[in-house]
Amino acid sequence: MHDFNTLFLQKEIHGNWSKAEDLVHNRAFLFGDGLFETMVFSKGELKDFYLHQQRLFRGMDLLGLSKNTISPEDDLNQLIRKHVPDRETARIRWNVFRSGMGKYSPESSEATETLQIQALILAPAVKKSAKISQEHCLYPHPWANCKTSNALVYVLANKERIAHLQDEIILLDHLGNISEAGAANIFWKKGGVYFTPSLQTNCIAGIGRAKILAALTEQGLDVQEGEFPVSELLAADKIFVSNVTGISYLAEVEGKYFDTQLEVHLEKLFQL
Hints:
With 272 residues, the protein is α+β, with helices and mostly antiparallel strands. It folds into 2 domains: 6-119, Aminotransferase class 4, branched-chain amino acid transferase, N-terminal domain (D-amino Acid Aminotransferase, Chain A, domain 1, 2-Layer Sandwich); 126-270, D-amino Acid Aminotransferase, subunit A, domain 2 (D-amino Acid Aminotransferase, Chain A, domain 2). Helix content is 23%, strand content 33%. The radius of gyration is 19 Å and the shape is globular. The protein starts with 5 loop residues before the first strand and ends in a 5-residue tail after the last helix. GO terms for molecular function: branched-chain-amino-acid transaminase activity; lyase activity. This is branched-chain-amino-acid transaminase. Keywords: Lyase.
């Protein structure tokens, strides 16, 4: 995109969108009482919007938020086109949080929306080094698979990653099973079989994850979801992580080295 950092847009009560130059106090800011979706805008439209919408709606049901006023796909696409030049790509963060104020006890079930529009940075093809987090893990919550406004565990995990000069960090669940990476889901391959942690490990129900699982199944390849210890990950031939920006292959994890040859049949899922 053109050289700006982030454009903030907020949906007003009457349904129109306006620039929100200053972030205001709201329940997402004060209590983490909301959700968000990170999406890719390419060729004039949001990619995989239905998958994002369905995940958002599941989260809204858990938080008790009304879906009555949520913007439909066409409205969002038209709005973003006004701010993203033709043939440009963008990273879109769609924030949805509870309206009104109150304290811990909410006063409303209505939802407020904001958009953040940024230049899209694609996932690097290879991340040279990764470690298993020793400081943070993922606990079971009803909202564990959703992208909530409270992402503190991921912030602290990535702080740990930076402190150890790593390119990626891998989080375990509270039982010691592999769960996900610092901002992505994780897969590995051994002997032609693909593995990924199940949602029972408290990982995010990633859109890239869903696309990869569907593609592997459609291609008739063996893919297993489950609860796996660290030893199974470290015995893999290849490890890769995925989110909406693409796939990254991990060259080294905890001193062990892995194949980083591209999975071409999966890379196609993320072409813009």
